[in-house]
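#structure-requests
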Amino acid sequence: MSPIDPGVPHGATATTTDDGWTLIMVRELRHPPERVWAALVDPGELDQWAPFSAAAPLDAPGETTLTMVDGDTRVDLPAIVRAADEPRLLEYSWGRDLLRWVLEPTVAGTRLTLRHQSPEAGIEAMVAAGWHLCLIVCDQLVGGHAVGVIRGTDAMDHGWADLRDGYAKLFG
């Protein structure tokens, strides 16, 4: 695995809702929406950057399974793709959480906005730190420079704890 620079917490907000919280994370990627879309929906690509593997492509509405991966530990969670409007919008449930990915073309590539909603209180900064690292790996993968997946306890070796603490301060 190639070393990565995790940078600092940025481009994210977390708000409390009546039924949990919502994380909104925005990233500017130097790749066209069509290429970013492929990384979001293709199981082979997801397995190289996401915190889960997918049993099937996420490019059409329907039920599937997303498997949380942490070393040798695997936990299957039901998922339902609710919207798949290539290459602009992808929305799916992941267990009790809801993820909504919006891709907007920009002059330099794509503005990617992730809205992650969850009913589980107190984990917003942890989730933000995890997505922060995953999206760095995704950006590298989409750019043709695969650095190796970083998820689960492996994230501890890549600045996850500092990112978590930084996002906790950012979210107040």
